[in-house]
Structure formats: C-alpha cells, structure tokens
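Section 4.2 – Deliverable D4.2 (structural model, holo form)

The reporting period included a commitment to supply a predicted holo structure for the target in complex with zinc ion. Inputs used:
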Amino acid sequence: MSLQAIKDAIANKKMICPKCKGSIQQFDKYANTIDAVRDGFNVLEIDSRGERVTLICGNEGCSWKERTEYPMEFVED
Ligand SMILES: [Zn+2]
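Output (structure tokens):
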C-alpha cells in the first residue's frame, strides 16, 4: 500500500479504527523498506520489501494507535 493510497483511504474515511469503529484520522512515520542488492555483474536490483506506518485513530475519547506493516487490514470497502 503506497503512501498516497494511505492518504486517500484516510481522506475518504475508509480506514476504520478497530476499537471505536470510527474512521482513522491520522497516520505518522510512514517508512518504506527498500533493500538494494548489487550482484557480481554490477546490476543493481532494488526490491521493495514492505512498509510501516503508525495509524492513529484520533477520534474523541479513543487513544487507539498501531504501528503496522499491513495498513490494508484497516481499510473497509
Ligand atoms: Zn478509535
């Protein structure tokens, strides 16, 4: 899930807090984990291994937040 997809899902209120079932309002510290591997023939391979983001509910009375590698799990259609 790209950073833009996360932004869009939050803007469209499609990310749902598992605690209060309201829409997640914020995220923080998005990081994409990229491993670069150079082999013996000087070919640089860049392999995206994953991503991490902290999702923050932000709704009144709810303190839920979670650092996750699977932000898609919180998106509802
Ligand atoms: Zn919540």
